[in-house]
Amino acid sequence: MKIILFDVDRTLVHDGYAGKIAFEQAFRELFGVDHQFRIMAGKTDSSILLEAIKEKNIPEDRSGIDGFKDLYHRLLAGHINRDLPGKRIFAGVGPLLEELEGNKETRLGILTGNWKKAAYIKLSHFGLDKHFGFGAFGDDAVARNDLYSFAVNRCGSISDLDPRDVVIIGDTPSDMQCALVNSCRSLGVATGRFSAQDLILYGADHAVDDLTDTRGIADWILGDAGY
Predict the structure, then answer these.
(1) What average pLDDT does range 157-167 have in this prediction?
(2) Could you give the residue ranges of the DSSP H alpha helices within 10-92?
(3) Which of 12, 42, 160, 223 is 20 to 30 A away from residue 191, measured at CA?
(4) Is 172:194 a contact under the CB 8 Å cutoff?
(5) 3-state SS assignment for residue 185
(6) Could you give the domains of the chain?
């Protein structure tokens, strides 16, 4: 059995910065101060918010965080429907998901820094939510490396799992680091800010420019690769 855990942003889809726009708007409306969220790639939503709250000397309390999440999700649901530049599913995503889903020896999940509701707002908008029945999200842990165990445990009914039968697919060094720390394999995808060569240097077992080579990528994941 192979467990394949996909990142969302810049791996499966580009949300046209709907998430960034909604995050900044929610922060401004709830806390009354502007904050530009410049470096979000690879971080969990929880860590992004906590860092900003600390930087702006805003008291950290559970009600404020929950209020931010609720407002952010409402704003995101609106912004994701706008005609935003760059918003798209990345090339090869649909065929690869269908190829992997058609194999009885694979289970597809999500490992993302997005809060769960935000992840599914994005996935649903692009019609990809149907492919993923489990995962780990920014609600589960502040540190991305800690998300692995949540995702694997939620896959269910797998005993004596070899970590090398788990593949994390993502576009940032943080995705590669998560795989390294948890002794599983990683596939870097250069559809974000990092090249395939960069992702190899950060520890990816293999890296591609995009996900268009359906057969080759599926073979690599299943252990039949000529890569």
Answers:
(1) 85
(2) 18-31, 45-55, 62-79
(3) 223
(4) yes
(5) strand
(6) 2-15+88-222 (3.40.50.1000), 18-79 (1.10.150)
Q: E-assigned strands of the chain?
A: 2-6, 13-14, 88-89, 106-111, 135-136, 166-170, 185-189, 206-208
Tokens at 56, concatenated? 């702006």
How much of the chain, in percent, has pLDDT values that exceed 90? Answer: 86
Q: What DSSP element (H or E) covers 7?
A: none
The amino acid occupying position 67 is G
The C-alpha atoms of residue 133 and residue 39 are separated, in whole angstroms, by 29
For residue 221, give every residue at least 6 positions away whose Cβ sits within 8 Å of its Cβ, in sequence order, or none: 2, 4, 100, 106, 167, 187
- 191 secondary structure, DSSP code: T
Phi, psi of 207 (to 5 degrees): -145, 145
Higher pLDDT, 129 or 227: 129
To 5 degrees, how large is the angle CA 44–CA 47–CA 53? 140
Cα 138 from Cα 117, distance rounded (Å)? 10
- Measure the N-to-C terminal CA separation of the chain; round to a whole number of Å: 21
**Rounded Cα gap, residues 41 and 10, in angstroms:** 9
Cα separation, 31 vs 42, in Å, equals 24
